[in-house]
Amino acid sequence: MFSSITNMTKPKAKDLHHLFSEEAKSRNPSQLKQAFKHFHDPNIISLGGGLPLPEFFPFDNLRTDTLSPPFAEGNNAPITAQNKTEVSAQKDKDTDDSIPLGVSLQYGNSAGNAKLLKYMVDHTKIVHNVAYEDWDVIMTVGNSHGWDSVLRTFTNRGDTILAEEFTFASAAECAHGLGLKIVPAKVDLYGLIPEELERQLDNWVGPKPKVLYTIPTGQNPTGSTLSLERRKAVYALAQKHDFIIVEDEPYYFLQMAPYTKDLEERRKSLETPTHQEFLNSLVKSYLDIDTEGRVVRLDSYSKVLCPGSRVGWIVAQKEVTERMHRLHEVTVQFPSGFAQTIVYGVLEKWGQEGYIDWLIELKKSYTKKRDLAIDTLEKHLPKDICEFIAPEAGMFFWIKMDGRKYPKYKELNGDPLAIETDIYERGLQHGVQMIPGHWFIINDKTDPPQKELPVSDDYANAIYFRGTFASAPEDKLVRAIELFGEHLVKVFKK
After folding, report:
1. Which residues fall in a compositionally biased region of kind Polar residues (predicted)?
2. Is the pTM of this model over 0.85?
3. What pLDDT digit, counting tens, does each position of 383-394 carry?
4. What are the beta bridge partners of residue 247?
5. Which of 109, 162, 286, 388 is 20 to 30 A removed from 136 (C-alpha atoms)?
6. pLDDT by residue (tens digit) across 25-49?
7. CATH class held by domain 94-352
């Protein structure tokens, strides 16, 4: 069982209305959605909503099989009669562990189905000790949708936001599509550098950004995981400079034991911990230090169940989720009813403890793949050219090189983007693909321009490549890294 958190008095969230966008401030509740509350009132015959009768839905039942906790044979074991859990839902039958199809396939609450929302709230209470009282959860169609909702809630066209200098390309394109500028915040191999962020904000010219977008755990693309100490320092800057921290955390539960070459230590790291030991091993979320409600956490089942589920959720103060609710009422409505039915059915059958069992097995699986990838990198990448660290979360590794050592450095005018592109294209010819770092780079300029802060020579000439240990089976993962090592030796040693 999970240990209970002491019910001490917590502060209320800070009023952040002044940070809301003009769009968020102007949204009113949908009158039609408000009218739906009367649809199931037995004392009222409702002709007010365009809800088709469930008897015309051509779906009578839904069933799938999944593995049963505690997943003793691993979470990729074949499903058999002995380890199978049946998940089902029927059109008209309402049970504790299912959502009737007559409900889930109907127009519903734009915050999400109440049963699945409760599961998400209970999960959040188990994993995080949210540091203030009045928080809430709203469902999304995955974290990309959640990010779009955040931007529309807090930013206006022409605003500037902050993000790690290398970040998830789709998140950047979403912001650019809304007319925003993204100013890079300096990182190292361990994530955001609070001292550099403080220097940047203290020297800011013009209106300061209202939003910091960050992937603090298993960062995409760098694979870095920000320590609790750095998170506390960044949060203090959010208070000082009055901005929102958006923590995009799809990789949060893909945290792994520290990399070691010691085989006995590896064996111990793959032993099954208790649930509380597992939870204690997780780096704290910004939620755990957020006493003012200025953190918006994006969560998703995409990396822990499957990307195609398109079910995620946002944890934030209630005033923020209420504004997002108004947005979702007239945009996405709510995530797919089929998806909510299946996800809830599986999770409720597993229970909160069974879901933790699943996450523990994921940790083991990703630790094994990470160790294999780093072992192979250590063996095959030229150490006089490459620098990297073993990620402790996520699915990516990040390789840093000194562009000045590239034989075509002068020919390419020392341009890191041109050097990365040249290495990338020649790598494809060698049969291997690693993604160039500049595909993820953030370098927007503000108007008026920010004061240029000095950059160390070490970073001025650095080039980067991102790889993943998640998408290929073990034999192909090893072969790909071998090929990349051969490729680097060939192109750098000319």
Report:
1. 77-88
2. yes
3. 899 989 899 999
4. 214, 297
5. 162
6. 888 776 566 656 666 667 776 666 6
7. alpha beta
CATH among 3.30.1160.10, 3.30.70.260, 3.90.1150.10, 3.40.50.880 for 363-493: 3.90.1150.10
